[in-house]
Amino acid sequence: MELRFPDPQGLADLAAFVRRAKQADDDGAIRLQASGATLAAYVAVLSGSGLLGEGTVLGLRAMALAAPADLDVTVPLAAILDRVARDAGDSLSVPPTTVRMPWAALSPPRGGWERVGSIDSEDVNAVARQGIAEIAEGAPADAGGHAVTALRRQVWGRPTPTTPPVPAGGAFAAYVLGFSLPGTEMTVWAHGRWTRLSTPHGHVLIR
């Protein structure tokens, strides 16, 4: 299967998105969901827990395709970068190796969202930087994996001091994925258990 973009910049944008996601989770994966001439690319910045995946934080980029495609696969981030290194131009050969990730079974709603407000990107970035520093200080090198996981869930699960408030994990995702660029306003949407932060550069979906 091959995904063809309108120009080489489209493939470069996907590669940049994957590289940022890999910084958050080196062993992560990406869900490529193509329908017609649109590609929805999902990555997990924070994994949730339980049957309902509470605490899951996803990043989403929607991209135009030059040729219609019908696809829904989840592949390793590293495999995409390997392909990009080999595939020049405007086309991506989808890696044949797929993976099963619990978060990929969560399908955020496509419609029915209710706008609840907006947040300045600088406020979002400040929350993200503060959380990163708090985790770095509170998780010494000899801390066990369970302790670090518990600290991360505590820090990223609490609400931001913004109006409206959102889970801090959403701010972290927007920051690491490059969605909250200076001067950008993030629109906050709600739908049942889901919260969405939207900017011109991408979306963050919080379960």
UniProtKB/TrEMBL annotation:
Stored Pfam families: DUF8010, DUF8185
DUF8010 domain boundaries: 2-104
InterPro entries the UniProt entry points to: DUF8010, DUF8185
Domain DUF8185: residue ranges: 108-207
Protein name: Uncharacterized protein
Organism: Knoellia koreensis
